[in-house]
Amino acid sequence: MKKVVFLMTAIGLTFIFMSCASTPESQSAQASKTAEVKKQTAADDYGKAGNTFLKYCRGEITAIANISADIKSSPKERTSVEVLHLYNILEIKQSDLWNKSGIYQMNHPEEGMRKAAMMCESAVTEQATGLSLDYELFSALAAISADDKSIADEDRYFLNDVLGDFKRNGVDKDEKTRDEIKRISAELTDLEQKYYGNIGGDRREIKITDINRLKGLPADFIAGHKPDKDGVITLTTDYPDYFPVMENAEDDTLRMEMYKNLHNVGYPQNSEIFSKLLIDRKKKAELLGYKNWAEYTQAKLMIGNPENAYNFIKKVADMSKVYANKDLEMILAKKKEMKGPDVEVEAWDRFFYPRIIQMEKYNFNPEDARKYFEISKVMNGLFMVAEKIFGVTFEKVKRDDVWDESVQSYNVLTNGKVTGMIDFDLYPRENKYKHFAMFTNELGVKGVRLPRAAIVGNFPQPVDGKAYVSHDDVQTLFHEFGHLMHSIFAGDQKYVRFSGTNCQNDFVEVPSQYMEEYVWEAPILQLWATNDEGTPIPADLVENMKKASEFAKGVHVNRQMHLSMLSLGIYLQDPVNFDHHAYEKKIEKEYSPWKSYDDTHLIENFGHLIGYSSNYYTYMWSLVIVKDIAGFIKSNGGLMNPAIMGKYRSTILNVGGAKTGNQMVEDFLGRDFTIEEFDKWMKQ
Ligand SMILES: [Zn+2]
C-alpha cells in the first residue's frame, strides 16, 4: 500500500489523473502546474526538445481551432460521415497533446521540456473548455439527425456520446448561464490548484533528540537520520520517512506524532478553500440541471446515481465490518502482549502490529520472496504470461523518439503482425515521476495508427546487471501491465474517444486489478520466478505470502468504505454554512475501523476528494467485478486457459469505451455481475 500507482490518460475534454492507490497518504501534491505555466512567456527558451515540442503543440492547437471553424462554417455542404470524421480528428489532436504533455512533464529529463509540456497541457485544456461551451460547434454536430441512414450504429453511439458531453458541460444553456458556468469552472480550477499546492507545500517535521525512539527501524534508516550538531534528528511526513516509521518504530508516541502531523497537512489553509469548492461544485451541478455534484458526476458512470453508490458502499461496509473487527482483535492482542494490558488499538498501529503478525503468525518475511524476483526474470514472466493468455508476442525494438535513453521499447505482435507499441521506463531518475503508472502516449485509431503506451516505474537500480524486487513490486507491475494491455488491445477503435482505457471511470480498474490475480498462484509463478540457482519459488512460500496478505484485508476494505462514504456523503450535503469537520468526524465514528480523533483533519489533505470527488468507491466497485470475472475464469478452464482468456480479451479488453461497463460484463459472463465472489474472497 506504500506505493502510489497512477493510470494517466486523457478522456474527452478532461485530463483525467487516476490514482490506483488506496490511502489518503498517497495524495501528496499534484502541485499547481498551470499557475507556474502562466508565468512563462513566449520569449523563454525551453531547450531544443522543449522548443520543438512547443512548436508542435502550438501548431496542433491552431489546427484544432481550424477544424472547429471548419465544422461550423458549412455543415450543410458536408455529409454526416464527414462531419463526424472531422470531429474525431479534432479529438485525436487533443488527446495527443494531453497524453504527450502528461508523459513529458512527469518524466522528461530536460527541465525545458517539462515546462514546455506543462504549458502545452494548460493551453489545450483552456481551449477545450472553450470548445465544450461553443454552441455553434455543438449545433453543427447536433444537426446530424439520430435516424440519419447514412451513418452506422457505432457512429450514432459516438455522436450521442459527444452530444451528451456537450450538454453535460452546459452548451445548450442560455448565454448568461454559460458565462456563469465558465466563471465557476475557472474559479474551481483555481481552488483545486490551491488545494493541491497547500498539501504539496506543507511538509511537516518531527524533531527528536533521543535516538532510542528510532528503535525497530532498519539500520540504514537510522544511519540516514544522523543527529545534527545540536543532537536533533529530523523526521518528515514525506513517504521515505513516514512509512518506515509507521511500519517499524516500536515507540507508539512517535508513530502518533507522525500520524497526527500527516493528517493535519493542509490544515487550516485548505479548510476555507474546500468549503468554497463544495459550494462552487454544487452551484455548477445545479446550473447543469443536477441536484448535486455526486449526481452530476455519476450520471455517466456504471453506478448511475448517488442512491446506488450509497447502497453499494453501505453493503460492502457492513460486509467488511465483521472481518475488520476480527483483524482488530488480533491487533489488540498483539499490542497487549507487547505493551501491557492497558492499551487500546490506535490509528497509528495500522502498519506496525499487522507487520509483526504477518511475520510471526504467517511465517512470512518479504525478504524471503525477493530472491525469486530478479527484475529480468519478472519482465520475462510478465511477457510469458501475456503470450500464453492473450496469444501475442513481444519483440524488443529500438525507438529513436523515447524521452530518455534508458527507456526499453517493444512491439506487441498479434499473429505475427505489429498491433501496438510499448515502452518501459523502470528505474529512478532525477526529476522523474516517483511512483508507478501507465501513461498513454498515442491512442490507437483503426486504420490510422497503432496504439502506443508506457509503464513508468521506480525499481531499484540494478547492481552488476541484477536487481531484486519485492512481491509488492511484482504485483504493482502486473497491475500496470493490465492497464497497458487494455490500452493496446482496445487501440483498434474507429473513434479515439473510445480507444484504450477510455471506458467508464468506474470500470477502468477492472483490467488492471484482474492482472494482479496472476501473482498469487504458485503454479503460475513457478513458470518464471526462480532464484539464482534456478529453483522455482516454493509453493509454501507463496501460500504464506498469500495468507499474510489476506490478514488485515478486513480492516483495509472497511477503511476503503469509510473513505468512500466520506467522498460520497460530503457531496450530498447542503454546503452553505456546512461544518465539514464535524461531518468528517461523524462519518469517521460511524464507518472507520480505526478510532476517531478530533484533532486530525482528513478533508484538508485527502486529495481524492478533489480528483475522485464523490466517486472514491470506484476501486472497490471494480474489484467486485474483478472477483466475479476471475472466479468465472477459474471455473471455466483457469487463469492460463487460452480459450476463456480469448473471450475475456474480445469481450472486455478489446472494447475500450465503445460499450458500457455493464454491457462488457454481460457479454463476458452472460449475466450481470454479483458480489458473491468478492464475499468469498473476503471470507478467506
Ligand atoms: Zn490502476
Structural overview:
The structure is a single chain. This protein is α+β, with helices and mostly antiparallel strands. It has a domain at 29-132 and 134-168: Glutathione S-transferase Yfyf (Class Pi), Chain A, domain 2, CATH 1.20.1050. Helix content is 54%, strand content 8%. The chain has 27 helices and 9 strands. The protein has a 7-stranded mixed β-sheet with strand order 2-1-8-9-7-6-5. Strands 3-4 form a two-stranded antiparallel ribbon. Helix 2 packs parallel to helix 4, helix 3 (80-107) packs antiparallel against helix 4 (111-132) and helix 25 (642-653) packs antiparallel against helix 26. The longest helix is centred in the middle third of the chain and has 34 residues, at 306-339. The chain is globular, with a radius of gyration of 25 Å. The model is unreliable at 1-42 (pLDDT under 50). The chain binds zinc ion. Zinc ion binds next to strand 1, helix 17 and helix 18.
Question: What are the main properties of this structure?
Answer:
single chain; about 675 residues; alpha+beta; Glutathione S-transferase Yfyf (Class Pi), Chain A, domain 2; seven-stranded mixed sheet; two-stranded antiparallel ribbon; 9 strands; about 55% helix; globular; disordered N terminus; binds zinc ion
Named once each, the bound ligands are: zinc ion
- The coarse overall form would be globular
Corresponding CATH architecture of one domain = Up-down Bundle
Number of helices: 27
CATH homologous superfamily classification of one domain: Endopeptidase. Chain P, domain 1
**Beta strand %:** 5-15%
The level of helicity is 40-55%
CATH topology of one domain: Glutathione S-transferase Yfyf (Class Pi), Chain A, domain 2
Secondary-structure content class: alpha+beta
| C-alpha termini separation | 20 Å
The strand line-up of the biggest sheet is: 2-1-8-9-7-6-5
